[in-house]
Design goal:
- It is a single chain.
- The strands form two sheets. A six-stranded parallel sheet has the order 3-2-1-4-5-6, with helices on both faces. A six-stranded parallel sheet has the order 9-8-7-10-11-12, sandwiched between helices.
- It is elongated.
- The chain has helices spanning 13-24, 49-55, 85-91, 101-105, 109-112, 123-144, 161-172, 184-192, 203-206, 224-228, 248-254, 264-268, 270-289, and strands at 6-9, 29-32, 45-46, 58-60, 95-98, 116-118, 153-157, 176-181, 196-199, 212-215, 235-238, 257-260.
- It is of the alpha/beta class.
- Helix 6 crosses helix 7.
Amino acid sequence: MDIGTIAVIGGDERFAILASLLAQDGHTVFGAGFDIKPELADGVVLTDPLTAALMAQSVILPLPPTSDGIKLSAPLSYEDVPLDERLCLALERSRVYCGMPHRLAAVSERYGKLQCRDYSTQESFLLLNAQLTVEAALMLAIKHLPVSLFGTRCLVTGYGRIGRAMALALRSLGAEVTIAARREEHFAHAKTLGLGCCTYAALPACVEQYRLVVNCADALVLSSDVIAAMDSDALIIDLASLPGGTDFAFVRERGITALHALGLPGKYAPLSAAQIIKDTVTAMIEEEFH
């Protein structure tokens, strides 16, 4: 199906690859912000961000679109891509597909008026991206732990899509897994799978027994009182978006290893991550064309 001209502006390696995958599908694709690794965007018309936005009917922006509210996330660009009024005006002419669009809306009143379609909340994206995140997190755990995951006591805080997939993956490797959550239905679900359960309030009393703690909750659940009770040899992998769910300042005081593992799919499986975004956004565009 012809879904018109597409622009991919900014983002990490997965977005350069995304642009190339769209071009391979026969679409006319403009790309911007990939000048450090242009070879990843094979088949794409590379230009500047403003031109790309003006030439396209649909524009795909990164996940997240910005980390500082001033410039677009564009780690593959030699130059900053400012989120200025000129770029906003160009984006107003197109359908904009963006991950975490609230961050873009916070840039200015004008950016807040953009009609952004959020691909990062689509169920297909969430489920598949969660699996990539879990695989990468397991790799980090194996790399940084001096012991095998088999038989190791592990705690997963948060029981959403990523937390659930993380708990199941750890258990499949023979780890003893407990989940911490708030909702009774999460505890009920975990119990049917043979997982241990713990409330957040009870963490200070029981957290010492866990060698690996994986946080998947977008809240400060690994607070100073929890960290104070942890074993000094424990490993924390925090998968929550900024600012995370860990008191990182107190972790440093305790000398506990804590990894704030952001954007794992794009770092460890960029081709698979790009394919997930492509399939999700293409389906969204096709739905609008109908």
